[in-house]
Amino acid sequence: MTVTENAAANVAAYGAMFRTHNATRLRYALHGRIPYHDTAALQRLCEVHRVSPAQRELFLTWFLPLCSLHIRAGITQAQLPGLLKFWRRAHLARPDTPGSDVLTKLRRHIAAGDMRWVMDVRPLSQAIPDYPVTHGLAKEPKGAS
């Protein structure tokens, strides 16, 4: 399945869900491949690193697609343990109320198309949504308005 530039723009603009439909999950994001096929190994990793089911769902539905925008060559199975550890550290570093200066800087990075923030714990921890994204739109982080 390919996604045209126009379709991708509509997904980005309107939040239409295109990564999953019923039991089918798209293995390619807009820029790279996401290795969803080895769920047993990922489940073991989640148990070892004490990742809750909600955190695992955020990792799969929110963080990995973001990583695919940063790691444009695609995410390999070998990268998943390191990405999961990084995700766990970022999740543990989440503040109760995100700092407005960090969120402002994050918005500037996103507007400029700079995806390096995805692999920086401080802005990533402030951008993590409270709940798994199920409808294509994440709730804005606490204190972001």
What does this entry show, briefly?
By secondary structure, the protein is mainly alpha-helical. It has six helices and two strands.
What do these coordinates show?
There is one protein chain. The chain is mainly α. The protein is 48% helix and 3% strand. The chain has a two-stranded antiparallel ribbon with strand order 1-2. It has six helices and two strands. A hairpin with a 2-residue loop joins β1 and β2 (24-25). The model is unreliable at 14-18 and 136-145 (pLDDT under 50). It has helices at residues 5-14, 39-48, 53-70, 80-92, 100-111, 121-127; strands at 20-21, 24-25.
Radius of gyration: 15 Å
Report the uncertain regions.
Answer: 14-18, 136-145
Report the sheet with the most strands, covering strand number, pairing sense and barrel closure: 2 strands, antiparallel
* Shape, per Cα inertia axes: globular
Strand fraction: under 5%
Tally the helices: what do you get?
A: 6
Order of helices and strands: HEEHHHHH
Residue-averaged pLDDT, rounded? 74
How many beta-strand segments?
Answer: 2
Please list the strands of the largest sheet in the order they lie side by side: 1-2
Report how far apart the termini are.
37 Å
The structural class is mainly alpha
Helix content: 40-55%
